[in-house]
Amino acid sequence: MLRINLLPREVLERRRYEGWYRWVAILAVGLILIFLGIYVLLMLEASSKAAQLQSVEESATQVKATAASLAIFENKEQELVKRQQVAVTALIGRVNMGELANEISLVLPDEVWLDALTINESTGIVMTANTPRSASESMDVAYKSVAKTLVRINELPDVIDVWLATAANGTWGKWAVSPTVTGGNAPLPVDVVTFQATGKVVAPGPSAATPAAAPAASAPAPAASTAAPNSGSTQ
């Protein structure tokens, strides 16, 4: 059987493409759904990143607030470091009076004792001492003890220019002896050579341990021997 299509050619072309419209629509709808899915995913990711950014900003704000509250402790620490540097510088420039007095007491001859010892960084050392003198000894024997004292003190590293100021024969009686000796507790005079010696205290020089960043601070002027914090006195 032979079929003859009598439709015009324009109609035939139109019907040929009508079958494609459905597939084109399906493809368009699919592409739109894909784009919508991608858009939704991107929006969710952006929301998540925005939430993370907000959380980080809040944490940064809290950290800044904490740092601001702790800044006072940092300032106190810096102030403490500066004070420590000043104290170290001041101590390096001071003479240890207790140690110097102990060294003087160690080098004194056995037969010499002190009535008074004054040490001051400005005025130096003033020492009043005694050494026994007996009638059986000539005068130069007692004075040898005086000279020995001056030599030993002058050999100390913190003392220079030790000189004998005065020396004279005398008696010393400042302790009470047994009642069987003098019939009571009255002091028993002893023949002595009483002498006074003077010297200068060596000021410590600059030390490598001095902090370089320490602010300049003037050391307090030494006062009287017994009242100054950097002086010592022994009676």
Q: What are its keywords?
A:
single chain; 235 residues; alpha+beta; 5-stranded antiparallel sheet; 4 helices; 5 strands
Short description:
With 235 residues, the protein is an alpha+beta fold.
What does this entry look like structurally?
With 235 residues, the chain is α+β, with helices and mostly antiparallel strands. The protein folds into 2 domains: 9-93; 97-203 and 228-234. It is 49% helix and 20% strand. The chain is built from 4 helices and 5 strands, in the order H-H-E-E-H-E-H-E-E. The chain has helices at residues 9-92, 97-107, 139-154, 179-182; strands spanning 113-120, 124-132, 159-172, 190-201, 232-234. The chain has a 5-stranded antiparallel sheet, covered by helices on one side. Residues 207-235 have low confidence and may be disordered.
Write the topology of this structure.
Elements lengths: L8 H84 L4 H11 L5 E8 L3 E9 L6 H16 L4 E14 L6 H4 L7 E12 L30 E3 L1
Antiparallel strand pairs: 1-2, 1-5, 2-4, 3-4
Q: How are the strands of the largest sheet arranged?
A: 3-4-2-1-5
Strand content range: 15-25%
The global form is rod-shaped
> Strand-and-helix sequence, N→C?
HHEEHEHEE
Number-wise, the strands total: 5
Tally of contiguous helical segments: 4
Q: Average pLDDT value? A: 77
Main beta-sheet annotation = 5 strands, antiparallel
Please bin the fraction of helical residues: 40-55%
* Structural category: alpha+beta
Q: How many domains in all?
A: 2
Estimated radius of gyration: 51 Å
Distance between the termini: 153 Å
Spans of 5+ residues with little confidence (pLDDT < 50)? 207-235
